[in-house]
Specification:
alpha/beta; Alpha-lytic protease prodomain-like; Alpha-Beta Plaits; 3 domains; three-stranded mixed sheet; 11 helices; transmembrane helix; Cation diffusion facilitator transporter; Cation_efflux; Cation_efflux_TM; monoatomic cation transmembrane transporter activity
Protein backbone atom coordinates (compact mmCIF):
# COMPACT_ATOMS: atom_id res chain seq x y z
CA UNK A 1 0.00 0.00 0.00
CA UNK A 2 2.84 2.40 0.86
CA UNK A 3 4.50 1.88 -2.52
CA UNK A 4 1.18 2.29 -4.33
CA UNK A 5 0.44 5.61 -2.60
CA UNK A 6 3.92 6.98 -3.23
CA UNK A 7 3.81 6.02 -6.90
CA UNK A 8 0.39 7.70 -7.27
CA UNK A 9 1.01 10.91 -5.33
CA UNK A 10 4.78 11.55 -5.28
CA UNK A 11 6.35 12.63 -8.54
CA UNK A 12 9.85 11.17 -9.08
CA UNK A 13 9.34 9.21 -5.87
CA UNK A 14 12.66 7.36 -6.21
CA UNK A 15 14.76 10.55 -6.16
CA UNK A 16 14.73 10.90 -2.36
CA UNK A 17 17.62 13.36 -2.19
CA UNK A 18 15.66 16.13 -3.93
CA UNK A 19 14.06 18.59 -1.46
CA UNK A 20 10.85 18.75 -3.53
CA UNK A 21 10.46 14.96 -3.43
CA UNK A 22 11.13 14.91 0.31
CA UNK A 23 8.46 17.56 0.85
CA UNK A 24 6.00 15.58 -1.30
CA UNK A 25 6.57 12.49 0.86
CA UNK A 26 5.97 14.54 4.01
CA UNK A 27 2.79 16.06 2.58
CA UNK A 28 1.48 12.61 1.62
CA UNK A 29 2.16 11.13 5.06
CA UNK A 30 0.51 14.09 6.79
CA UNK A 31 -2.61 13.99 4.60
CA UNK A 32 -2.98 10.23 5.09
CA UNK A 33 -2.71 10.82 8.83
CA UNK A 34 -5.44 13.47 8.79
CA UNK A 35 -7.88 11.32 6.81
CA UNK A 36 -7.32 8.10 8.76
CA UNK A 37 -7.49 9.78 12.17
CA UNK A 38 -10.67 11.69 11.32
CA UNK A 39 -12.32 8.40 10.35
CA UNK A 40 -11.37 6.97 13.75
CA UNK A 41 -12.51 10.11 15.59
CA UNK A 42 -16.01 9.91 14.13
CA UNK A 43 -16.34 6.19 14.83
CA UNK A 44 -15.02 6.29 18.41
CA UNK A 45 -16.83 9.43 19.53
CA UNK A 46 -20.08 8.01 18.17
CA UNK A 47 -19.55 4.62 19.83
CA UNK A 48 -18.27 6.09 23.11
CA UNK A 49 -21.11 8.61 23.43
CA UNK A 50 -23.76 6.06 22.43
CA UNK A 51 -22.66 3.49 25.00
CA UNK A 52 -21.32 5.84 27.71
CA UNK A 53 -17.67 4.78 27.63
CA UNK A 54 -15.18 7.44 28.75
CA UNK A 55 -12.32 5.16 27.70
CA UNK A 56 -13.58 4.98 24.09
CA UNK A 57 -14.25 8.74 24.05
CA UNK A 58 -10.74 9.34 25.43
CA UNK A 59 -9.28 7.15 22.71
CA UNK A 60 -11.30 9.07 20.11
CA UNK A 61 -10.05 12.42 21.42
CA UNK A 62 -6.53 11.00 21.24
CA UNK A 63 -7.16 10.32 17.55
CA UNK A 64 -8.42 13.89 17.17
CA UNK A 65 -5.11 15.10 18.58
CA UNK A 66 -3.36 12.84 16.08
CA UNK A 67 -5.33 14.42 13.23
CA UNK A 68 -4.39 17.88 14.50
CA UNK A 69 -0.78 16.74 14.75
CA UNK A 70 -0.86 15.63 11.12
CA UNK A 71 -2.16 19.06 10.11
CA UNK A 72 0.64 20.74 12.02
CA UNK A 73 3.15 18.36 10.40
CA UNK A 74 1.73 19.23 7.00
CA UNK A 75 2.17 22.92 7.71
CA UNK A 76 5.68 22.22 8.97
CA UNK A 77 6.71 20.39 5.81
CA UNK A 78 5.30 23.14 3.60
CA UNK A 79 7.00 25.95 5.54
CA UNK A 80 10.26 24.00 5.74
CA UNK A 81 10.31 23.75 1.94
CA UNK A 82 10.69 27.53 1.61
CA UNK A 83 14.09 28.52 0.29
CA UNK A 84 16.55 30.98 1.86
CA UNK A 85 15.64 34.66 1.98
CA UNK A 86 17.26 37.88 3.14
CA UNK A 87 16.39 37.33 6.81
CA UNK A 88 16.94 33.57 6.83
CA UNK A 89 19.98 32.76 4.65
CA UNK A 90 20.09 29.18 5.97
CA UNK A 91 16.55 28.41 4.81
CA UNK A 92 13.46 27.45 6.79
CA UNK A 93 13.95 23.71 7.29
CA UNK A 94 13.81 24.05 11.08
CA UNK A 95 10.07 24.62 10.74
CA UNK A 96 9.83 20.83 10.62
CA UNK A 97 11.38 20.64 14.09
CA UNK A 98 9.05 23.38 15.35
CA UNK A 99 6.07 21.48 13.95
CA UNK A 100 7.18 18.40 15.85
CA UNK A 101 7.45 20.44 19.06
CA UNK A 102 3.95 21.86 18.52
CA UNK A 103 2.57 18.36 17.98
CA UNK A 104 4.23 17.11 21.16
CA UNK A 105 2.84 20.01 23.19
CA UNK A 106 -0.68 19.34 21.89
CA UNK A 107 -0.39 15.70 22.90
CA UNK A 108 0.62 16.72 26.42
CA UNK A 109 -2.30 19.17 26.74
CA UNK A 110 -4.85 16.61 25.57
CA UNK A 111 -3.37 13.99 27.89
CA UNK A 112 -3.90 16.29 30.88
CA UNK A 113 -7.52 16.94 29.87
CA UNK A 114 -8.21 13.22 29.49
CA UNK A 115 -6.61 12.50 32.84
CA UNK A 116 -8.99 14.92 34.56
CA UNK A 117 -12.11 13.50 32.86
CA UNK A 118 -11.08 9.90 33.54
CA UNK A 119 -10.32 10.62 37.20
CA UNK A 120 -13.84 12.04 37.60
CA UNK A 121 -15.23 8.86 36.01
CA UNK A 122 -13.31 6.79 38.57
CA UNK A 123 -14.80 8.84 41.41
CA UNK A 124 -18.30 8.69 39.93
CA UNK A 125 -18.61 5.52 37.82
CA UNK A 126 -21.43 5.37 35.27
CA UNK A 127 -22.87 2.32 33.50
CA UNK A 128 -21.02 1.38 30.32
CA UNK A 129 -22.93 -0.11 27.42
CA UNK A 130 -21.55 -3.00 25.41
CA UNK A 131 -22.17 -3.73 21.76
CA UNK A 132 -20.67 -5.45 18.79
CA UNK A 133 -20.43 -2.00 17.16
CA UNK A 134 -18.09 -0.59 19.80
CA UNK A 135 -15.92 -3.72 19.68
CA UNK A 136 -15.85 -3.56 15.88
CA UNK A 137 -14.81 0.12 15.92
CA UNK A 138 -11.94 -0.63 18.31
CA UNK A 139 -10.74 -3.65 16.30
CA UNK A 140 -10.82 -1.58 13.11
CA UNK A 141 -8.85 1.16 14.89
CA UNK A 142 -6.15 -1.30 15.98
CA UNK A 143 -5.69 -2.59 12.43
CA UNK A 144 -5.66 0.89 10.87
CA UNK A 145 -3.22 2.30 13.43
CA UNK A 146 -0.89 -0.65 12.97
CA UNK A 147 -0.79 0.06 9.24
CA UNK A 148 -0.27 3.80 9.87
CA UNK A 149 2.66 3.04 12.13
CA UNK A 150 4.36 1.01 9.40
CA UNK A 151 3.46 3.59 6.75
CA UNK A 152 4.94 6.53 8.66
CA UNK A 153 8.04 4.62 9.69
CA UNK A 154 8.77 3.52 6.12
CA UNK A 155 8.45 7.06 4.80
CA UNK A 156 10.23 8.58 7.81
CA UNK A 157 13.22 6.29 7.38
CA UNK A 158 13.24 6.82 3.60
CA UNK A 159 13.47 10.62 3.84
CA UNK A 160 15.21 10.84 7.23
CA UNK A 161 12.35 12.62 9.03
CA UNK A 162 12.35 12.49 12.84
CA UNK A 163 8.85 14.00 12.78
CA UNK A 164 7.39 11.07 10.81
CA UNK A 165 9.34 8.50 12.83
CA UNK A 166 7.85 10.06 15.98
CA UNK A 167 4.42 9.90 14.34
CA UNK A 168 5.02 6.21 13.64
CA UNK A 169 5.86 5.64 17.30
CA UNK A 170 2.70 7.53 18.31
CA UNK A 171 0.59 5.29 16.04
CA UNK A 172 2.22 2.22 17.57
CA UNK A 173 1.35 3.57 21.02
CA UNK A 174 -2.23 4.07 19.84
CA UNK A 175 -2.42 0.36 19.01
CA UNK A 176 -1.53 -0.40 22.62
CA UNK A 177 -3.95 2.13 24.13
CA UNK A 178 -6.85 1.05 21.92
CA UNK A 179 -6.20 -2.57 22.80
CA UNK A 180 -6.37 -1.54 26.46
CA UNK A 181 -9.68 0.26 25.86
CA UNK A 182 -11.04 -2.84 24.13
CA UNK A 183 -9.99 -4.93 27.10
CA UNK A 184 -11.77 -2.55 29.50
CA UNK A 185 -14.97 -2.68 27.42
CA UNK A 186 -14.98 -6.48 27.59
CA UNK A 187 -14.08 -6.53 31.31
CA UNK A 188 -16.87 -4.09 32.18
CA UNK A 189 -19.32 -6.41 30.44
CA UNK A 190 -17.97 -9.55 32.15
CA UNK A 191 -17.47 -8.20 35.68
CA UNK A 192 -20.10 -5.48 35.83
CA UNK A 193 -17.53 -3.13 37.43
CA UNK A 194 -18.07 0.20 35.70
CA UNK A 195 -15.07 1.72 37.49
CA UNK A 196 -12.80 -0.27 35.15
CA UNK A 197 -13.74 2.11 32.33
CA UNK A 198 -12.54 5.14 34.30
CA UNK A 199 -9.40 3.39 35.44
CA UNK A 200 -8.56 2.42 31.86
CA UNK A 201 -9.20 6.03 30.81
CA UNK A 202 -6.66 7.15 33.43
CA UNK A 203 -4.19 4.60 32.12
CA UNK A 204 -4.66 5.81 28.53
CA UNK A 205 -4.20 9.43 29.63
CA UNK A 206 -1.01 8.63 31.55
CA UNK A 207 0.33 6.73 28.54
CA UNK A 208 -0.44 9.71 26.28
CA UNK A 209 1.36 12.06 28.68
CA UNK A 210 4.38 9.76 28.86
CA UNK A 211 4.56 9.49 25.06
CA UNK A 212 4.04 13.23 24.65
CA UNK A 213 6.88 14.03 27.04
CA UNK A 214 9.21 11.72 25.12
CA UNK A 215 8.26 13.45 21.86
CA UNK A 216 8.85 16.88 23.42
CA UNK A 217 12.39 15.88 24.38
CA UNK A 218 13.05 14.34 20.96
CA UNK A 219 11.96 17.47 19.10
CA UNK A 220 13.75 19.86 21.46
CA UNK A 221 17.08 18.11 21.05
CA UNK A 222 17.89 19.24 17.46
CA UNK A 223 16.65 22.76 18.25
CA UNK A 224 19.04 22.97 21.20
CA UNK A 225 21.93 21.69 19.07
CA UNK A 226 22.51 17.96 19.54
CA UNK A 227 25.63 16.00 18.67
CA UNK A 228 25.80 14.98 15.00
CA UNK A 229 25.01 11.44 13.96
CA UNK A 230 28.11 9.31 14.79
CA UNK A 231 27.76 7.51 11.45
CA UNK A 232 27.82 10.86 9.62
CA UNK A 233 30.91 11.94 11.59
CA UNK A 234 32.64 8.68 10.75
CA UNK A 235 31.75 8.94 7.05
CA UNK A 236 33.04 12.50 6.76
CA UNK A 237 36.29 11.78 8.59
CA UNK A 238 36.90 8.55 6.68
CA UNK A 239 36.24 10.30 3.36
CA UNK A 240 38.55 13.25 4.11
CA UNK A 241 41.33 10.95 5.29
CA UNK A 242 41.10 8.97 2.05
CA UNK A 243 42.63 11.85 0.04
CA UNK A 244 46.40 11.66 -0.60
CA UNK A 245 48.50 13.71 1.77
CA UNK A 246 45.88 14.25 4.49
CA UNK A 247 47.58 13.36 7.78
CA UNK A 248 44.67 13.88 10.17
CA UNK A 249 41.33 15.61 10.79
CA UNK A 250 39.99 17.36 13.87
CA UNK A 251 37.62 20.05 15.16
CA UNK A 252 34.69 18.75 13.12
CA UNK A 253 31.53 20.77 13.73
CA UNK A 254 28.14 20.06 12.15
CA UNK A 255 25.46 22.76 12.26
CA UNK A 256 21.91 21.57 11.66
CA UNK A 257 19.41 24.09 10.28
CA UNK A 258 16.81 21.40 9.59
CA UNK A 259 16.58 18.29 7.40
CA UNK A 260 18.60 18.79 4.25
CA UNK A 261 20.20 21.99 5.58
CA UNK A 262 23.45 20.98 7.26
CA UNK A 263 26.73 22.87 7.31
CA UNK A 264 30.05 21.59 8.63
CA UNK A 265 33.60 22.72 9.24
CA UNK A 266 36.75 20.84 10.11
CA UNK A 267 40.53 21.15 10.19
CA UNK A 268 42.83 18.93 8.16
CA UNK A 269 46.51 18.32 8.86
CA UNK A 270 48.57 18.50 5.68
CA UNK A 271 52.34 18.45 5.05
CA UNK A 272 53.75 21.97 5.30
CA UNK A 273 56.21 21.15 2.54
CA UNK A 274 53.44 20.83 -0.09
CA UNK A 275 52.91 23.81 -2.41
CA UNK A 276 50.05 25.96 -0.94
CA UNK A 277 48.34 26.08 -4.34
CA UNK A 278 48.29 22.28 -4.51
CA UNK A 279 46.95 22.08 -0.95
CA UNK A 280 44.24 24.62 -1.77
CA UNK A 281 43.23 22.67 -4.87
CA UNK A 282 42.91 19.45 -2.86
CA UNK A 283 40.80 21.19 -0.21
CA UNK A 284 38.47 22.50 -2.91
CA UNK A 285 38.06 18.96 -4.25
CA UNK A 286 37.25 17.57 -0.77
CA UNK A 287 34.65 20.26 -0.10
CA UNK A 288 32.99 19.70 -3.48
CA UNK A 289 32.92 15.91 -3.10
CA UNK A 290 31.43 16.04 0.42
CA UNK A 291 28.75 18.42 -0.79
CA UNK A 292 27.91 16.06 -3.64
CA UNK A 293 27.89 12.85 -1.60
CA UNK A 294 26.57 14.01 1.80
CA UNK A 295 24.60 17.14 0.81
CA UNK A 296 26.58 19.10 3.40
CA UNK A 297 28.31 22.43 2.78
CA UNK A 298 31.76 21.77 4.25
CA UNK A 299 34.38 24.41 5.04
CA UNK A 300 37.95 23.17 5.66
CA UNK A 301 40.72 24.91 7.60
CA UNK A 302 44.27 23.96 6.57
CA UNK A 303 46.76 23.12 9.36
CA UNK A 304 50.30 22.70 7.96
CA UNK A 305 52.32 19.98 9.63
CA UNK A 306 56.11 19.84 9.42
CA UNK A 307 56.91 16.32 8.28
CA UNK A 308 60.60 16.86 7.54
CA UNK A 309 61.44 17.06 11.28
CA UNK A 310 61.72 13.50 12.55
CA UNK A 311 61.40 14.66 16.16
CA UNK A 312 57.83 15.82 15.55
CA UNK A 313 56.80 12.47 14.05
CA UNK A 314 58.35 10.45 16.87
CA UNK A 315 56.83 12.67 19.56
CA UNK A 316 53.38 12.52 17.91
CA UNK A 317 53.41 8.71 17.98
CA UNK A 318 54.51 8.61 21.60
CA UNK A 319 52.00 11.23 22.72
CA UNK A 320 49.12 9.44 20.99
CA UNK A 321 50.06 6.24 22.78
CA UNK A 322 50.28 8.07 26.11
CA UNK A 323 46.92 9.76 25.66
CA UNK A 324 45.28 6.39 24.90
CA UNK A 325 46.71 5.05 28.16
CA UNK A 326 45.34 8.02 30.13
CA UNK A 327 41.86 7.99 28.53
CA UNK A 328 40.88 6.68 25.06
CA UNK A 329 38.18 9.38 24.87
CA UNK A 330 40.88 12.08 24.64
CA UNK A 331 42.88 13.10 21.59
CA UNK A 332 45.52 15.60 20.49
CA UNK A 333 46.29 17.48 17.29
CA UNK A 334 48.33 20.35 15.84
CA UNK A 335 51.56 19.13 17.43
CA UNK A 336 54.56 21.30 16.65
CA UNK A 337 58.00 22.01 18.08
CA UNK A 338 59.30 25.58 18.16
CA UNK A 339 63.06 25.46 18.80
CA UNK A 340 64.89 28.12 20.84
CA UNK A 341 68.36 28.84 22.19
CA UNK A 342 67.82 27.52 25.71
CA UNK A 343 64.66 25.44 25.27
CA UNK A 344 62.09 24.22 22.72
CA UNK A 345 58.36 24.76 23.09
CA UNK A 346 56.19 21.74 22.38
CA UNK A 347 52.70 22.94 21.50
CA UNK A 348 49.55 20.92 20.82
CA UNK A 349 45.78 20.95 21.36
CA UNK A 350 44.15 18.52 23.78
CA UNK A 351 40.55 17.63 22.86
CA UNK A 352 38.08 16.66 25.59
CA UNK A 353 34.64 15.20 24.78
CA UNK A 354 31.64 17.37 25.68
CA UNK A 355 30.70 16.87 29.33
CA UNK A 356 34.07 15.36 30.24
CA UNK A 357 34.10 14.50 33.96
CA UNK A 358 37.70 13.37 34.35
CA UNK A 359 40.44 15.21 36.26
CA UNK A 360 41.67 17.77 33.71
CA UNK A 361 44.46 19.02 35.93
CA UNK A 362 45.81 15.50 36.36
CA UNK A 363 45.68 14.83 32.61
CA UNK A 364 47.61 18.04 31.91
CA UNK A 365 50.16 17.20 34.60
CA UNK A 366 50.80 13.74 33.18
CA UNK A 367 51.17 15.05 29.62
CA UNK A 368 53.57 17.83 30.61
CA UNK A 369 55.62 15.40 32.65
CA UNK A 370 55.68 12.91 29.76
CA UNK A 371 56.87 15.56 27.27
CA UNK A 372 59.66 16.67 29.59
CA UNK A 373 60.78 13.05 29.96
CA UNK A 374 61.33 12.90 26.20
CA UNK A 375 63.77 15.82 26.32
CA UNK A 376 64.67 17.97 29.30
CA UNK A 377 64.78 21.05 27.07
CA UNK A 378 61.13 20.64 26.08
CA UNK A 379 58.55 22.99 27.60
CA UNK A 380 55.01 21.78 27.06
CA UNK A 381 52.29 24.28 26.10
CA UNK A 382 48.81 22.71 25.88
CA UNK A 383 45.61 24.29 24.59
CA UNK A 384 42.45 22.54 25.85
CA UNK A 385 39.49 22.26 23.47
CA UNK A 386 36.06 20.60 23.51
CA UNK A 387 34.98 18.14 20.84
CA UNK A 388 31.71 19.05 19.10
CA UNK A 389 31.39 15.65 17.40
CA UNK A 390 30.93 12.84 19.91
CA UNK A 391 32.18 10.15 17.53
CA UNK A 392 35.45 11.96 16.79
CA UNK A 393 38.69 10.24 17.62
CA UNK A 394 42.18 11.27 16.60
CA UNK A 395 43.20 9.31 13.55
Amino acid sequence: MTQLLTRLFVKNHQDLKKPAVRTAYGNLASLVGVVCNLILVVGKLAAGSLFGSIAIVADGINNLSDASSSLVSLAGFRLAAKGPDEKHPYGHARYEYLAGLAVSTMIMAIGLSLLKDSALKVLRPEPVGFSVLSVGVLLFSICLKFWMSRFNRQIGEAIGSDTLIATAADSRNDVITTAAVLASTVLCKITGLDIIDGLMGVGVAVFILWSGWGLVMDTLSPLLGESPDPELVERIERKVLSYPGVLGVHDLMVHDYGPGQQFASLHIEFPAEVDPLDAHDLIDNIERDVRRDEKILLTIHYDPIVTSDARVGVLRVRLNEKIRQIDPALSIHDLRIVPGTTHSNVLFDLVLPAGYTGDRAEVLRQLREFVTQQDEHYICVIKVEQSYASAHREK
